[in-house]
Amino acid sequence: MPFGLFRRKSRDAEHRVYSQIVAQARQPVFYQGYFVPDTIDARFDMIVVHTVLLFRRFKGAERSAGTFAQNVFDLFFADMDANLREIGIADVRVPKKIGKMAEAFYGRADAYIPLIDANDEKALAQALERNIWPEDETAETSTATQSEPLALARYMIGAAAALEAQDTRTICEGSVNFPDGADYLGQDR
pLDDT for 20-33, tens place per residue? Predict the structure, then answer.
């Protein structure tokens, strides 16, 4: 093929980072220690939390890092599309659901990032509580007290600092490290 026009670029590093985001979001500590409801919506929100942290890390970074983050974002929504189809959402409804998920992602990013930047644990905890522990959840799935959203806010601020300390090139090569969520539980302030 001339000039490699139709050659597919490898996205291995982006796949590794996205897999690490999903693995971190699925850590049992979030569902057992923070009492994040073990629901499809809350699992989505935990992936959003970690993807937002990565996006924040790359905010203002060089163009290649921005492209990398965009590729991770594209993988995230391709995965959400596949998951919706897997759970039986009709093909004609998937694009609308994906649109709502994208809107939710951007809304959460717009809410979380300035609060992380301001190191405002209380306001971030309130935003997390509205999204992850909504009032209309049943008692069975909504077992959080005020301490769990605050602990998750502390975790996000700590994870943002940990990501800032990581080398951009290392992340773009496919290795991102999030802190242990258990380290942020039970920290009374």
Answer: 999 999 999 999 99
| Cβ 58 vs Cβ 17: under 8 Å | no
Domain range for 48: 10-179
Q: What is the pTM of this model?
A: 0.85
pLDDT tens-digit profile of 99-132? 888 899 999 999 999 999 999 999 999 999 999 9
The closest of 136, 138, 145, 158 to 49, measured between CA atoms, is 158
Residue type, 84: L
Residue 14's Cα: distance from chain center in Å? Answer: 14
User: What's the Cα-to-Cα distance from 127 to each of 20, 26, 72, 117, 149, rounded to whole Å?
Assistant: 24, 20, 24, 14, 9
Residue 98, both tokens: 């994906």
Q: What are the distances in angstroms from CA 124 to CA 7, 61, 66, 167?
A: 43, 24, 25, 26
Q: Is 184 a member of any domain?
A: no
What's the structural domain count of the chain?
1
The tokens of 148 are what?
Answer: 């769990």
Residue 65 buriedness (CB in 10 A; 0-12 / 13-18 / 19+): middle
**186 located within any domain:** no
